[in-house]
From TrEMBL, chain A:
Coiled coil start-end: none
Main location per the UniProt record: mitochondrion
Protein name: Mitochondrial inner membrane protease subunit 2
CDD domains to which the protein is assigned, alphabetical: S26_SPase_I
Superkingdom as given in the UniProt entry: Eukaryota
Family according to the record: Belongs to the peptidase S26 family. IMP2 subfamily.
Record keywords, A-Z: Hydrolase, Membrane, Mitochondrion, Mitochondrion inner membrane, Protease, Transmembrane, Transmembrane helix
Active site per database record: 36, 89
Residues of the Peptidase S26 domain: 11-102, 108-148
Classification via InterPro entries: IMP2, LexA/Signal_pep-like_sf, Pept_S26A_signal_pept_1, Pept_S26A_signal_pept_1_Ser-AS, Peptidase_S26
The species this protein was found in: Ceratopteris richardii
Compartment list: Mitochondrion inner membrane
UniProt record, GO biological process: protein processing involved in protein targeting to mitochondrion; signal peptide processing
Membrane-protein topology: Single-pass membrane protein
Automatic annotation (TrEMBL), chain B:
Topology class, membrane: Single-pass membrane protein
Keyword Transcription regulation (UniProt): no
Source organism of the structure: Ceratopteris richardii (Triangle waterfern)
Gene3D superfamilies: Umud Fragment, subunit A
Major localization listed first in the record, in broad terms: mitochondrion
InterPro entries: IMP2, LexA/Signal_pep-like_sf, Pept_S26A_signal_pept_1, Pept_S26A_signal_pept_1_Ser-AS, Peptidase_S26
Any GO BP annotation: protein processing involved in protein targeting to mitochondrion
The protein's name in its UniProt record: Mitochondrial inner membrane protease subunit 2
Subcellular location: Mitochondrion inner membrane
């Protein structure tokens, strides 16, 4: 009588480990909240029904161990102001680049090991323009596709931000 | 004839999944390089058995998920200047605390979501005194024990840094 139970336990444990390993190494899904990446990504709201209307994206972690990110990628990162929160922003500049802070005349050089992220919706986004360049170690993965809702399924493209970044070999 | 090979494959896959799951959720081991945490942790001299030199520590990730760290814990974190490097430092101050930067008269308040880490080794340590308060999202786990070499086996204690930190309500 104990056998089917043991069998179920073994299968459940195996399934759990496969999921954990997959989400650790390959990638995971995330639902979008907030408008900072509009129009690229649209949010769902906090009540359960509206949550189903928000974009769900898949982000891959295979680039993560080598930190092979490119300027213009949309990435998932841990918020520097609240480690429990994940944010989705676009990678604008990498270490050594010079970035013009919008709305002022200063330019900053991104220190070693850090990067500059911004949301596509400039007006609403809390990002590097507020908290400065962030360590690349906070970036968890790269958003590759939107998987929900069905009419918005598609790739999330790498868009190089024009006019905002000077690469180190140019200056 | 295929059966023993299949059984071996299944067992290996299970072992791999189990290791990945455990190191992701429970904890992992790390070897110390460098002197920045002396005398608590020793780097050891180079010798033929290079991989056995230097203290090996176990760090747990169960606190990591909720970021339940305490002042005085020794933690493992990703370096802000090189995301492929890991560092081991002591957590000196948390968000909202006021800290005296050694060697100057200034006091800084640690911003939200960040923390201040220092190596026990003092001047030779590259830490928050060089790169400032770090996002808690970089911290990967808490060192609990030294597990190698055998004569140095033991717990790594939480040592509250006296006289360095003022908590927000004391200022």
């Amino acid at each position: 009588m104990a056998e089917p139970l043991w069998f179920l336990a073994k299968r459940s444990a195996a399934a759990a480990m496969i999921c954990i390993t997959f989400t650790d190494i390959v990638g995971n899904f995330a639902t979008i909240q907030g408008n900072s990446m509009q129009p690229t990504l649209q949010q769902g709201h906090k009540d359960f029904i509206s949550l189903l209307k928000g974009d769900v994206v898949f982000y891959e972690k295979i680039s993560a161990p080598a930190y092979k990110y490119c300027r213009g990628d949309v990435v998932v990162l841990r918020s520097p102001t609240d480690p429990d929160q994940l944010m989705v922003k676009r990678l604008i500049a990498m270490q050594g680049d010079w970035v013009n802070v919008p709305g002022s005349h200063e330019i900053h050089q991104i220190p070693k090991g850090r990067c500059w992220v911004e949301g596509d919706n400039g007006n609403l986004s809390l990002d590097s323009r507020n908290f400065g360049p962030i360590p690349l170690g906070l970036v968890k993965g790269r958003v590759t596709i939107k998987v929900w809702p069905p009419h918005r399924i598609g790739r999330v493209e790498r868009v190089l931000p024009e006019g905002q970044v000077m690469f180190t070999d140019i200056t | 004839m295929a059966e023993p090979a299949w059984l071996l494959a299944k067992r290996s896959a299970t072992a791999a999944l189990l290791s990945i799951t455990l190191t992701d959720i429970v904890g992992n081991i790390a070897r110390t390089h460098g002197d920045s945490m002396q005398p608590t942790l020793q780097p050891g001299e180079k010798n033929l058995l290079g991989f056995l030199k230097g203290d090996i520590v176990f760090f747990e990730k169960i606190s990591a998920a909720a970021y339940k760290y305490h002042r005085g814990d020794v933690v493992v974190l990703r370096s802000p200047s090189d995301p492929n490097q890991w560092m081991i430092k002591r957590l000196i101050a948390m968000q909202g605390d006021w800290i005296n930067v050694p060697g100057s008269y200034e006091i800084l308040q640690i911003p939200k979501g960040r923390c201040w880490v220092e190596g026990d080794g003092g001047n030779i340590s590259l830490d928050s005194r060089t790169f400032g308060a770090l996002p808690l999202g970089l911290v990967q786990g808490r060192v609990t024990h030294k597990i190698w070499p055998p004569h140095r086996f033991g717990r790594v204690e939480r040592v509250f840094p006296k006289g360095r930190v003022m908590l927000d309500d004391e200022v």
